[in-house]
Amino acid sequence: MTNIMEKKYIPLANYFSSATNATITLTFTEIEQIMGQQLPNAAYLNQSWWKKTKPPAKHFHAWLDNGYYVKKVEINRHVIFEHVDSADKDGADEDGDKDILLIRPAEHGDARSFITLQKAVEADSDFMLYGRDERIQSTQKVRKQIIEWKKSGHSTIFIAILNGEHVGYLMIIGNSAKRASHRASIVLGVQAEARGKGIGASLLDKAEEWALEKGLIRLELTVVTENTAARNLYDKAGFSEEGVRRKSLIIDDKPYDEIYMAKFLD
User: Fold this and answer.
1) Residue 12 needs a FRET pair 20 to 30 A away by CA distance; which of 29, 39, 66, 122 works?
2) What span, in angstroms and rounded, lies between the C-alpha atoms of 154 and 4?
3) Mean pLDDT rounded to a whole number for the chain
4) What Gene Ontology terms describe what this protein does at the molecular function level (predicted)?
5) Could you give the CA distance from residue 2 to residue 64 in angstroms, rounded to a whole number?
6) Closest CA to 188 of 113, 127, 263
7) Which one of 64, 97, 130 terminates a domain?
């Protein structure tokens, strides 16, 4: 990856670096969801912005340095990228293109999309803390929280982006108190249609990587006893049961127990 590329295009570069498809079509909205920021006005107004490959422009490094060029632009609709060796690219087969998964820290520009994602996950799940349409939060509040967490260094949010769409998240909630600064709790959610693709496991791997960089030695969570899929995921990720919080949630007038789970990091 070139070191002269603008910082805001780095997530887009990471997206293309993990791609194996001969052709990638992304809407303008999907590109902004990958970046976590808005495209400049020139991208919406001029096809030439996408075709630039010379200084002082730098944005093109995101795809060009990873072997892709812009094949076609439909202004304010979508962009078609093609690999320079598309004839030899083996990412596409008769069953269709392969999924492209990118996991990155949330930026303040993700606030509105994150709210939509969180509501969608909670509407799909029977076991989240909040039920369908129950959570109330403003874009301004979430944006402020993301900014404050990035400054604090002990909490963060990771966004899972599948084929340009926000489909999952993992929140790491740390502690400012010195005696508890070695641990953090996590909350994970993946949209129903994106489950079974290893996204949850990838989010947990990213969380562990971040935690180790921050010097944390313990990650903890709670999971509803009946949530078998989540329990299996956490078991495979190395989390161990530590106890039961009895009747901690009332869902549809029925009490549910939660299991305390934790993982100690090496």
Assistant:
1) 122
2) 29
3) 93
4) acyltransferase activity, transferring groups other than amino-acyl groups
5) 10
6) 127
7) 97
Q: Which amino acid is at 161?
A: I
Element (H, E) at 52: none
CA atoms within 13 A on the CB side of 258: 14
Answer whether 170's CB lies under 8 Å from 209's CB: no
pTM, 2 dp: 0.90
Q: What is the pLDDT of residues 92-128, one digit of tens each?
A: 444 457 999 999 999 999 999 999 999 999 999 999 9
Are residues 50 and 148 located together in one domain of the fold? no
Number of domains comprising the chain: 2
SS (H, E, C) 137-173: CCHHHHHHHHHHHHHHCCCEEEEEEECCEEEEEEEEE
CA 26 from chain center: how many Å? 17
Beta bridge partners of 158: 105, 170
